[in-house]
Amino acid sequence: MLQLILTGFSEVVSPLTVLLIAGGVLLGIVFGSMPGLSATMAIALCLPMTYGMVPINGMALLVGLYIGGISGGLVAAILLRIPGTPSSVATCFDGYPLAAKGQAGKALGVGIFFSFLGTIFGVLVLMLVSPLLARFALKFSFYEYFAVGVFSMTMMAGLISGSIVKGLASGAIGLLFAMIGAAPIDGLPRLTFGFHALDGGFDILPVLIGLFAISEILKSARERNAKKPTLLQDFKIKGFGFTFAEFRSQIFNFFRSAVIGTGIGILPGIGGGTSNILAYSAAKNGSKYPEKFGTGIIDGIVASESANNATIGGALVPLLTLGIPGDAATALLLGGLTIHGLNPGPLLFDKEAELVYGIFAICLIANLMMLLFEYGGIKVFARILLVPKYILMPIIMVLCVVGAYGLNSRLFDVWAILLFGVLAYVLEKFSFPLTPIILGFILGPMIETNLRRGLIASKGSYLPFLTHPISAVFLAISLIVIILAARKEIRAAKKDGKESS
Amino acid sequence: MLKKYQDVFCGVFLILLGVGLYAMSFRIKSVALNLIKADFFPRLDAALFVILGLILTGTGLSKARHSQAEAADSVPFWKQDATVSMLETLGLIAVYIALMKPVGFVITTVLYLIAQMYVLTPREKRTGKNAVLFAVISLVTSLAIYLCFTRVFYLMLPAGILPL
Q: What are A147-197's pLDDT values in tens digits?
């Protein structure tokens, strides 16, 4: 283990790799700070740059962006009361009130430091859990992969915030787009309407760029004449901004939030956008002084920022061990690995151990850089918030186009990002969540392929899906999740009916 | 009106999508190895759409019945400023993609950037000084992206009519 970790570090100590991590973290923080730009978008836009790099350098850039992007969201949350990314929604609740009291330096200091600790916690869990899980997953056959796919789909549907019906419908839409192109096993084209450009199906990158970047650009177009919030610019930051006694009072809160964050990260389909809010409400409910939450106490900032950064390490667990992304950003990392012919899964830990441990090392280095850059450059990042959207968004659009075109050097993929952008825009207008689309898109083929392969292996019998113990357990949990989710939905509907009548 | 029956519209749309997908699934050719063929998952998905559509329509109708009739917007949504600028943006992007291959990346990108920045700029900020700024930013960004991606990251971008 220690040997492998050292190998991992030796993989990434080359000047170029370190430079790429630094660049990724810096750019990530910028994307994270700007409301409307997110870590997911930063990774999508930079993915094309990694096509020509060796895998470890590509991952250095992408993981740097991921860590910088998730943490960077706190800048706008505290100084503008607008979350820079969905991961820092709960940071606004106490971060902005504290900053408004003239203690912006303290709010930022606490946020940055606990972001750092949160990431370390998540990455340590990743380093301990994923090799074990990978060894366990080596025994998986078609039956187990099918069951894990079904389990992931139901977890996503059951845990998504808002309407479960709409969440499931989004998943079904993702499934639909995944089916376009060659069918698994027999390779026959389906639902292509005779367009040969569709024979290969949609690539994940255009789908993600469309869903998470183009739709944001269309949304920002709507806000042309909207009122601008005021930015708190006068602040000082001394040391970390908080005392040791304050730090000690937050240790329990930190661990609870980090555990929530890592756990949410491991579960497929939900990421930092959910974990920060869950951790915040857990901190509030468990606190001796819940009435103070929302007035600008550091407990709220600690909960939100520890949780969203701990999610990073958690989200990488299912990605690396099973090839199932934990959230939208890791779905892109999946794309970044497969473009080099690397298929995440238990075999990756065997065949590409240097790369896997290299990724762990990158996480830790990127996290340290995030701490240094954010403390050192906080004034600059605050300034970046003043760059007008009308200059920024068009440039982002051009980068989206370049990214999509660069994939296969064809305009078809560029039209695809526009299609998915419009789709996401319309779906969001009708309050359908977007992440289940990605999950459906990735898990659909996994479920179908393994179901059909399993049935071929078992000569048409469904029994092995239930008699293989791991498969049976996952399917049973899925069933329970569905029943619980349905019960919750029915209760909510009944309550709704009673209240409005 | 649109807002009140939002879920009903979505539900009906999902049902139609499911029915359409089911009809399409009969045109999928497949090799029969066992019960599960290439048309099985499309049909499963179609069934899912219909079921979810029915639930959404049902809950949407009961929600609409209970909700108070809301006052209609004074300006229809397609005439609102926000919608207009969104549609302008959409149109610009479509023209940009359509012209990229014949004209080339650099020229279309400069023109797109200038037009898009103009569309997104609030009216009171559309000054002569800003116009010059937009033109300069567009030219520099476009050239920088083209050179950076073609020379450093080895991506092909349409050169078009410029001899770059």
A: 998 888 888 777 776 678 888 899 999 999 999 888 777 777 787 777 777
Q: Is residue A85's pLDDT more than 60?
A: yes
How many helices (H) and strands (E) would you count in chain A? 22, 2
pLDDT of the residue at A373: 94
Nearest to B66 among A422, A430, A500 (CB): A500
Please indicate whether, in this complex, the C-beta atoms of A394 and B36 are within 8 angstroms of each other. Answer: no
Contact A411 B101 (CB under 8 A): yes
Helices (H), A138-227: 142-159, 164-179, 204-209, 215-222
Asked whether the beta carbons of residue B30 and residue A390 sit closer than 8 angstroms, the reply is no
Distance CA A302, CA A94 (A): 10
Name the E strands within A75-216.
Answer: 181-182, 189-190
The ipTM (two decimal places) reads 0.90
Longest dimension (CA), chain A: 71
Chain A residues close to B62, C-beta within 8 Å:
497
Closest CA to A198 of A473, A491, A416: A416
Which residues make Cβ contacts (< 8 Å) with residue A470, sequence separation at least 6? A139, A140, A144, A147
The first and second tokens of residue A369, run together, are 């850089």
Q: What pLDDT does A463 receive? A: 87
